[in-house]
Amino acid sequence: MSAEKTHNRNRVEKSRNIALCGILLALSAGISAAESMIPLPLGVKPGFSNLPVMYSMSRQGGKYGFAICLLKSVFVLLTRGVTAFFMSLTGGVLSYIVMLVLYKKTNVSLMLMSITGALIHNFGQLCAASVIMHTAVFGYSPVMIISGCIAGAVTGAVLKLLFNAMDKADSNQGGK
Amino acid sequence: MNHTENKRLITRRDAIIIGIILAAGVLALVLFGTHSRYGSKAVISVDGKTVKTITLSNLSRTYELDEAKGAVIEMKDGAICVYSSDCPDKICVNTGYISKKGEKIVCLPKKLIIEIE
């Protein structure tokens, strides 16, 4: 009887996670589409579409965040073509793996996790671009380091604010 | 690991590390980045192969290359830009005019690079 109850609760929990995962994916794709309209040189982006991914990773678990990360690239494939898909996938997956390891294995702050993720993301994209162009384009590295650091810090700050606000909301409800 | 323990937006350690990364980036930019001197020619390459070298001058001219169809390259006042392109992201067009040594315009979908030398 109680085993069945636990089983049911697990199923409800899983359904809730999958539904939330879908909402976060939609949010991420929406932010990504909005960001692609900002005409910054070199395709520099603030990277806020990574917020739902990081949220999912820390609150739902590694596999949910990874699913959002992959499906976000599929959205890019549908809307912006194969080249953009390849860039998105390389940067996204590389930075996701690094952030997951940092989050699970160390107690590094969200800020530093976000910055590392942004830098790895840019590095992955430079590698992908070099493969696509058949020429090394690492001349962009300095710009990518600076922009990645700033974008990562801003995203990290927003993430921290979000988490603080959500923890407060949770504790007001009597701890979920 | 407890990530919610510290409520502060940014810790001293974070700030120091951000500072170091930014300093490294700026240093790299100064050492390897674009020079302040103006270049004399623009080298256009597609898919890693040089297809055209344009000597920069004050003439106004536009170029369309068979190797990179859909992109219109414009030279004006000793600078060069991708004036228009049918690629989806328009990063090349948004880069604008370049004229200094080491500056680059890259269009990933077309595998096009314009570099000033």
Characterization of the model:
By secondary structure, chain A is mostly helical. Chain A has a single domain, classed as Arp2/3 complex 21 kDa subunit ARPC3 (Orthogonal Bundle). In chain A, 82% of the residues lie in helices and 0% in strands. Chain A has five helices and no strands. In chain A, α1 (2-35) crosses α3 (62-105) and α3 (62-105) packs across α4 (110-133). Chain A is globular. Chain A starts with a helix and ends with a helix. Chain B is elongated, with a radius of gyration of 20 Å. Chain B has helices at residues 12-32, 91-95, and strands at residues 41-46, 49-55, 61-64, 72-76, 79-84, 104-107, 112-116. Chain B is built from two helices and seven strands. The longest helix of chain B has 21 residues, at 12-32. A four-stranded antiparallel β-sheet of chain B has the order 2-1-7-6. Chain B has a three-stranded antiparallel β-sheet with strand order 3-4-5. Chain B has a domain at 41-116: mini-chromosome maintenance (MCM) complex, domain 2 (Sandwich), CATH 2.60.320. The A-B interface holds A 36, 39-43, 58, 80-81, 83-84, 87, 103-104, 106-107, 109-112, 115, 119, 129, 132-135, 137, 139-143, 145-146, 149-150, 153, 157, 160-161, 163-164, 167 and B 1-4, 6-7, 9-11, 13-14, 17-18, 21-22, 24-26, 28-29, 32-33, 45, 47-48, 88-91, 94-96, 102, 104, 106, 108-109, 111, 113.
